[in-house]
């Protein structure tokens, strides 16, 4: 008995070692694919997390950001399936992917030309002023050779020279000094230094005056609107192209994995490795350049991302991809695709998951920056932590999917969103973001692996790229749009923290609904399909 146990233990040890070797073994036919995926998603990691803060930096308001985030995905919703259909029709995934990558780089470069900022309207004038009190009211006497007093003064920027150290009485009736070096802004009707009386007049140095000028204000507003539309149009082209690259990369990966007997999770591992390693470095780079220039500069972020995408396009050119062409009419096969009951139900719940993805993608960083004052490097680090934590699971994704099932992973993805929402609604310390982002692998990495597995199983021959594109468009584009739209409405009405709580309850509800749909509907449909497959139709209906 002892010998039998020792042999069994030894065989288990050998089996474990062999499994580790299989896990670490490289398939030489997939090396270039891994590198291309790393570079593509590294470029995505460099740019995507900073889209929203970049829009704010060029002068777009929250309402305008919400409008852009809501409308743009509808463009890519149309373009992405078209790219998938073209890829399937031609059987040439590489050419479509390379073309969309280059178009994305060109259009994103044009984004840097958009500027919707409105000038503050302050101009330098040859002017001096004296601050003094009359009858307990602060008055300003301005002397200027260049300012025409017929133009009403709206505001004034000033500096109190170090030599002026006059005693002044505040409303609280105690005496204090005006600081030796004081800068400030005085608006009309609001001369606010909390001063009601000064012992002697104080000379101040005027930096700039803002005068009322309707024609100039109209010009500024027109410039803002022009910048908004330039950004909107260029970003629309960019989003459409990038959406197509995601679908094409997934189709190429699934096709090459099938041809070379590879593991989709291992290829996805390199995608997420690129997504996790680049973002914090470009965040640090942006902070460093911003400290040198005195303002936040995001051009370096775009430069890094574009370089990665161009190198990825060169690697894709070297790939040997063999894709199945559709049998029979393409439209007939497409109709068949939509008549499989599991597919429409799957797409509906992918839309609901995409709504959560869209809300997080559009508003999480704004919440972290505005409400919790999170620095740029921590924003990038949160992306890294979320990706790295999911990497081990990607290595075993095929085994996990086989053990627990696709439906279970989708349900858990809903529930993981609920947990993250509750956590963010209670958060006060920005470092807690790293803890909550560890759950992201359930709603992103594992979910995407399970969804692609579903597409590879359910897609009719020659329609793999089409179904993958429809899934990606539904989840990442239409879902992102609905998330931006719903999130914008809820935040404007209830605030960000209350919106997190509302969406947490919704995620729990939809996850439970999908589980019930699978138990009560989908499994019965699959059972009947299996019975029809193994029994003659006439005999089946006699049962």
Structure in words:
- This protein has 543 residues and is of the alpha+beta class.
- 69% of the residues lie in helices and 9% in strands.
- The protein has two domains: 27-118 and 220-527, MFS general substrate transporter like domains (Growth Hormone, Chain: A); 127-218, no CATH class.
- The strands form two sheets. It has a five-stranded antiparallel beta sheet with strand order 2-1-8-3-6, with no helix packed on it. A three-stranded antiparallel beta sheet has the order 5-4-7, with no helix packed on it.
- A hairpin with a 4-residue loop joins strand 4 and strand 5 (175-177).
- Helix 8 (279-293) packs antiparallel against helix 9.
- The two termini are 51 Å apart.
Question: What is this entry, summarized?
Answer:
The chain has 543 residues and is an alpha+beta fold.
Q: Strand order of the main beta sheet, please?
A: 2-1-8-3-6
CATH class of the largest domain equals: Mainly Alpha
The number of E-state strands comes to 8
- How many domains make up the 3D coordinates? 2
Q: Using only CA atoms, what is the Rg?
A: 30 Å
| Binned strand content | 5-15%
Would you tell me the structural class of the helices and strands? alpha+beta
CATH superfamily of the largest domain: MFS general substrate transporter like domains
**Distance N terminus to C terminus?**
51 Å
Shape: globular
Could you name the ranges where pLDDT drops below 50 across 5 or more consecutive residues? 1-11, 164-198, 537-543
Largest sheet: 5 strands, antiparallel
Please work out how many helical segments DSSP would assign.
Answer: 20
Mean pLDDT: 75
């Amino acid at each position: 008995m002892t010998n039998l146990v020792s042999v069994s233990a030894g065989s288990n040890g050998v089996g474990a070692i062999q499994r580790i070797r299989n896990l670490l073994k490289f398939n030489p036919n997939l090396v270039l694919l891994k590198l291309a995926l790393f570079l593509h998603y590294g470029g995505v990691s460099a740019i995507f997390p900073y889209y929203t803060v970049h829009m704010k930096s060029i002068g777009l308001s929250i309402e305008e950001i919400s409008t852009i985030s809501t409308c743009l995905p509808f463009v890519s919703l149309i373009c992405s399936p078209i790219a998938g259909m073209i890829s399937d029709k031609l059987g040439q995934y590489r050419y479509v992917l390379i073309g969309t990558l280059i178009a994305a780089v060109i259009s994103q470069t044009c984004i840097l030309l958009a500027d919707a900022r409105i000038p503050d309207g302050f101009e330098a004038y040859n002017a001096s002023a004296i601050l003094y009190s009359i009858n307990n009211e602060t008055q300003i006497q301005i002397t200027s050779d260049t300012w025409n007093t017929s133009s009403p003064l709206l505001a004034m920027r000033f500096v109190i020279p170090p030599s002026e150290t006059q005693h002044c009485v505040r409303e609280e009736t105690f005496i204090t000094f005006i600081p030796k070096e004081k800068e400030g802004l005085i608006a009309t009707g609001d001369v606010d230094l909390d001063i009601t009386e000064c012992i002697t007049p104080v000379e101040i140095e005027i930096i700039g005056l803002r005068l009322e000028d309707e024609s100039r204000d109209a010009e500024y507003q027109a410039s803002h609107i022009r910048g908004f539309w330039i950004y909107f149009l260029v970003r629309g082209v960019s989003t459409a192209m990038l959406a197509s690259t995601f679908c094409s990369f997934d189709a190429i990966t699934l096709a090459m994995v099938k041809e070379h007997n590879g593991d989709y999770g291992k290829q996805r591992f390199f995608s997420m490795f690129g997504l996790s390693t680049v973002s914090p470095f470009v965040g640090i780079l942006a902070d460093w350049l911003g400290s040198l220039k005195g303002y936040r500069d995001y051009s370096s972020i775009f430069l890094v991302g574009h370089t990665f995408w161009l190198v990825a396009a060169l690697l894709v050119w070297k790939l040997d991809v063999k894709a199945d062409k559709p049998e029979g009419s393409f439209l007939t096969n497409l109709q068949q695709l939509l008549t499989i009951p599991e597919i429409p139900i799957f797409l509906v719940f992918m839309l609901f998951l995409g709504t959560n993805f869209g809300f997080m993608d559009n508003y999480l960083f704004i919440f972290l920056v505005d409400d919790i004052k999170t620095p740029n490097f921590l924003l990038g680090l949160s992306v890294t932590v979320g990706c790295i934590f999911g990497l081990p699971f990607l290595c075993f994704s095929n085994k996990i999917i086989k053990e627990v099932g696709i439906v279970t992973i989708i349900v858990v993805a809903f529930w993981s969103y609920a947990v993250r929402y509750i956590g963010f609604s209670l958060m006060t310390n920005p470092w807690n973001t790293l803890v909550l982002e560890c759950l992201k692998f359930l709603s992103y990495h594992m979910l995407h692996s399970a969804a692609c597995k579903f597409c590879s199983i359910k897609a009719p021959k020659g329609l793999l790229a089409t179904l993958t594109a429809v899934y990606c468009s539904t989840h990442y584009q239409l879902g992102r749009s609905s998330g931006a739209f719903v999130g914008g409405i809820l935040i404007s009405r209830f605030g960000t923290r209350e919106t997190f709580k509302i969406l947490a309850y919704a995620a729990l509800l939809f996850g439970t609904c999908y589980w019930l749909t699978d138990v009560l509907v989908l499994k019965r449909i699959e059972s009947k399909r299996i019975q029809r497959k193994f029994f003659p139709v006439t005999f089946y209906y006699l049962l």
